[in-house]
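Tutorial, part two.
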Amino acid sequence: MAMDVRNIEDVAPVVEHNGTVPVWWMVGSREMKEATEGGFLELVNEFVVEGGSYVFPHSHPTHEFYYVLRGRGIMVISGDERPIAQGDLVHIPPDAVHSLRPVSDNASIHCFCFAIGTADAGPIDYTTH
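Running the prediction step on this input gives:
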């Protein structure tokens, strides 16, 4: 599976809620239904990777999504490396080894994260994954 990175600047807003709110659809309604069938919301968080540091390479049985709020980094998923920056949404498939590091030792990358657990997955200890 190729790395899936989508940027908000590549998406035209659609005005919704009776014309009161512009919405940028990064993942369309039901677009991932088949891939996440039987899944559940596993987690939602924000995290920061400081310059000179990195996210230890790891995997878990979830569909994980990183949305870059600030900064730039190098995302690695299953050996595939790609630069990511503010406005990017990255999909990490279940059980794919992944890591993230800032592009600079002097600047951090700040992300919003959420994950969809797979139907057959048990509890995950994120302190070791």
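The chain is about 5% helix and 45% strand. In part three we will examine how such features are distributed along the chain.
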